Amino acid sequence: MVKLIGFKKVNTAIFISGTGSNLKSLIKFSLLKKSPIKISLIVSSNIKAKGLKYAKSHKIKKKTYNFKNTSFSEKILLKDLEINKINLICLAGFMKILSKSFIKKFNGKILNIHPSLLPKYKGLKTHERVLKNNEKYSGCTVHYVNSQLDAGKIVMQKKVKVSKKENPQSLKEKILKQEHQIYPKAISKVLTSL
Ligand code: GRF
């Protein structure tokens, strides 16, 4: 668990692999005076991740790790997290599975956002599966990361209605809008409820 000391913002790293729309919303949130986080590092598993452009535009340190050799990449990553005094990790569309030992080292300090109402629809292709099953509702979940995929303790969820005309893309967009709202709220909840 991370502790907020006085009003000092918690040094945070955001891990991405793609578009980075959650990263964008978290950067906006971090710049608010009342925000409990300072984004000190952006970690990417993909050199072509579109989200890396936000590192440049907001002058945030960024680094890409290829994760072909997980233990080697994680060793360097851990060193970089230590150098940057990172106390909270927020996964935001990060497509690599972190090792058990990495998660153990950051126990209680890693959050993830997932585009479904967990524990339903863990893993990939959530919107396709939701539509195939004719679900009336879907949504998004912010949860702690443990060693099992999308199974850590839930911090916050937001439900959305699946409309009759929905397709995977429209559902993705509808849920992303909610993700951008709840991730900052969930971070505040985690950091201030102590
Ligand atoms: C989001 O839907 C998030 O829930 C999932 O990956 C997607 C990332 O989108 N884990 P973005 O890169 O933040 O736009």
Keywords:
alpha/beta, Rossmann fold, seven-stranded mixed sheet, 6 helices, binds 5-O-phosphono-beta-D-ribofuranosylamine
**What is the 3D shape?**
globular
CATH architecture annotation: 3-Layer(aba) Sandwich
Spatial strand order of the main sheet? 3-2-1-4-5-6-7
Briefly note the CATH topology name: Rossmann fold
Number of domains: 1
Notes on the protein architecture:
There is one protein chain. By secondary structure, the protein is α/β, with parallel strands linked by helices. The protein has one domain (10-192): 3-Layer(aba) Sandwich (Rossmann fold), CATH 3.40.50. The chain is 35% helix and 22% strand. The chain has helices at residues 21-30, 53-57, 70-83, 100-105, 126-132, 168-192; strands spanning 10-16, 37-44, 62-64, 88-91, 110-114, 137-144, 154-161. The chain has a 7-stranded mixed β-sheet with strand order 3-2-1-4-5-6-7, with helices on one face. β2 (37-44), α2 (53-57) and β3 form a beta-alpha-beta unit. α1 (21-30) runs parallel beside α6 (168-192). The radius of gyration is 16 Å and the shape is globular. The mean pLDDT is 95. 5-O-phosphono-beta-D-ribofuranosylamine binds at residues 16, 18-22, 51, 92-93, 113-115, 140, 176, 179.
